[in-house]
Design a protein that fits this description.
By secondary structure, the chain is mainly alpha-helical. The chain contains seven helices and four strands; from the N terminus they run αββαααββααα. Strands 1-2 form a two-stranded antiparallel ribbon. A two-stranded antiparallel ribbon has the order 3-4.
Length: 198
């Protein structure tokens, strides 16, 4: 009896929100492969265990990191269940609009909106100037998620459209590398400034 239940448990696939599969989703950007976590989970909630160790957030699922990004300052500050519902509904909208797996769309959006180059301030002899530097993979993902969520939040302000719709649109546009996406536009702007500071 116990062997039958274990084989059933092993054959059952773990799906996000019991709908979306993590199978066959690959990260094409080689620099982000180690830091973009796609470990299957039903509910993206790790109880903040990653917080007490350096670089541990690389082991946090990318969907949970998007939810955490939505909890930045504003109405959703600290409301993880509300942010999770926003992401869940946005994923439904993405699936209806594109017919693709929303996790795959999210991964592509993060890859397309993560800047590779940035600038840093250097003070030399009382003169401050900017110098172009490469961005670490962990920070690239952080910036991509920050720009995606900020773009969705700003688009829903003073707008009859809900944050779920604006987040879904932002992810779809970023996945298609469309310049209308706030995150992709921000990436291009950061890289343009960095290129001029070489």
């Amino acid at each position: 009896m116990s062997t039958q239940t274990t084989t059933v448990a092993q054959s059952q696939e773990i799906k996000l929100f019991q709908k979306w599969s993590f199978k066959e989703i690959a990260v094409k950007d080689i620099g982000l492969q180690r830091y973009l976590n796609l470990v299957p989970m039903v509910a993206p909630h790790s109880m903040g265990r990653h917080e007490h160790q350096r670089f541990r957030k690389a082991k946090v699922n990318i969907v949970e990191r998007l939810i955490n990004g939505l909890m930045r300052s504003g109405k959703n500050s600290g409301k993880k269940a509300k942010a999770a519902n926003i992401v869940k509904e946005a994923f439904e909208i993405i699936n209806v609009k594109t017919g693709k797996n929303p996790i795959e769309v999210l991964v592509k959006a993060v890859e397309n909106s993560s800047p590779c180059e940035d600038t840093t301030r250097i003070s030399y002899g009382g003169v401050v100037y900017h110098l172009s530097v490469d961005v670490a993979p962990q920070r690239r993902i952080d910036l991509a998620i920050r720009h995606i969520t900020a773009g969705a939040r700003n688009a829903s302000l003073n707008n009859p459209r809900s944050i779920q719709e604006t987040l879904a649109d932002e992810l779809i546009l970023a996945a298609n590398k469309d310049i209308k996406s706030a995150a992709v536009a921000k990436r291009n702007e950061i890289e343009r400034v960095a290129q001029s500071s070489r």
